[in-house]
């Protein structure tokens, strides 16, 4: 299936989820992350969910990270060039929902991509090869291209992998793994 068709399919599937289902599935995903060997790092990038898009509630993951005394970074979008700034989330960080429905830090301490060791990546769909489909603006591909090769790229999805995504281009950055409520997929990059 091509990216456009997958976007439509998974937006529709997500739109049918209740808030209770989203919270339960999000908690299942967070629990599946616990046994992974990713917790010896310091800097973790976590997206803040767009509630109107019924994205995964990352609050559960952030509780784990704060409980382990990790540095949590959240993105701030630049729509002029489709890049992200990575702001350290602290008790005093003020968040504001932008015009796209994305909660973002108003200001704060920016951290460069070379320090980021683990990235939790939003997506609409992914395949058995670690390719992903987002909203199509390239924010995460632009961001991940600037990260160290050792940075662990973890997709988060409510749904299982597609067999294959058609239309993958060289600038599409593959996942290292993807965690769903029922399974963890590992990809060789």
TrEMBL record:
Known EC number: 6.3.3.2
InterPro entries per the UniProt record, alphabetical: FTHF_cligase, FTHF_cligase-like_sf, NagB/RpiA_transferase-like
UniProt superkingdom: Bacteria
Molecular function per GO: 5-formyltetrahydrofolate cyclo-ligase activity
Reactions listed under catalytic activity: (6S)-5-formyl-5,6,7,8-tetrahydrofolate + ATP = (6R)-5,10-methenyltetrahydrofolate + ADP + phosphate
Sorted UniProt keywords: ATP-binding, Ligase, Magnesium, Metal-binding, Nucleotide-binding
Pfam family of the protein (one): 5-FTHF_cyc-lig
Essential cofactor(s): Mg(2+)
NCBIfam families: MTHFS_bact
Family to which the UniProt record says this protein belongs: Belongs to the 5-formyltetrahydrofolate cyclo-ligase family.
Protein name: 5-formyltetrahydrofolate cyclo-ligase
Source species of the chain: Aquimarina celericrescens
